[in-house]
Design goal:
Blueprint lengths: L1 H4 L3 H23 L2 H17 L10 H27 L13 H19 L3 H11 L5 H8 L3 H19 L3 H13 L1
GO molecular function: DNA binding; sigma factor activity
Keywords: Sigma factor, Transcription, Transcription regulation
Pfam family, one: Sigma70_r4_2
């Protein structure tokens, strides 16, 4: 890392080549999304290069990277939590009740409730919602695939989110706990 701090690109490339794949695999354990894992790993290496003169490594470079990766994953999940509630037009709770056996048993019922809410959407709104949220397609990709304008896609997503918000509002804390269980356990 001393050579990297001096701006040595070969030393940086050596660190990148020796740690990038392991870092991606580590992030993949938490994120379950290879593209996102690679994106966050690249962000970490970009940060290392940008801050190379200021970074103090107390143990090993590998430990530094994996700590940074864990922090990036946690930050990502916090942002996702915020977006999850914002998209439903709800405030994120300050604290979530501890996960109990009762919560785990309720997951199946909760998933069915969510599925029923999605199934109750108008056909086109449902299709567009699923393309956006389940297939992770952009509004532009959806518009191109369905031969619609991006504005029409946005309108259908808005309809879907309003209807889901109305039906699921009383259950948002349970839904969030379910989401945590689904993504971390």
């Amino acid at each position: 890392m001393v050579e990297v701090a001096k701006g040595d690109l070969k030393a940086y490339r050596y660190l990148f080549d020796n740690h990038f794949a392991d870092l991606c695999n580590f992030l993949l354990i938490y994120l379950h999304d290879r593209n996102l894992a690679e994106e966050l790993a690249l962000d970490i290496f970009a940060y290392v290069w940008e801050k190379r003169e200021d970074i103090e490594i107390k143990s090993s470079f590998r430990n530094y990277l994996f700590t940074a990766a864990k922090n990036q994953a946690v930050s990502h999940f916090r942002k996702q939590q915020k977006h999850f509630f914002t998209d439903l037009g709800l405030e994120a709770p300050d604290a979530i009740d501890p996960i109990s056996a009762e919560h785990i048993i309720e997951n199946e019922e909760l998933q069915q409730m969510i599925n029923n809410a999605i199934d109750s959407l108008p056909a086109q709104s449902k299709r567009i919602y699923q393309m956006a949220w389940e297939q992770n397609l952009s509004y532009k990709e959806i518009a191109d695939e369905l031969g619609l304008s991006v504005k029409t896609v946005e309108n259908h997503v808005g309809i879907a989110l309003r209807k889901l918000r109305e039906r699921l509002r009383p259950y948002y804390k349970q839904i969030f706990v379910f989401w945590i269980i689904s993504n971390f356990f």
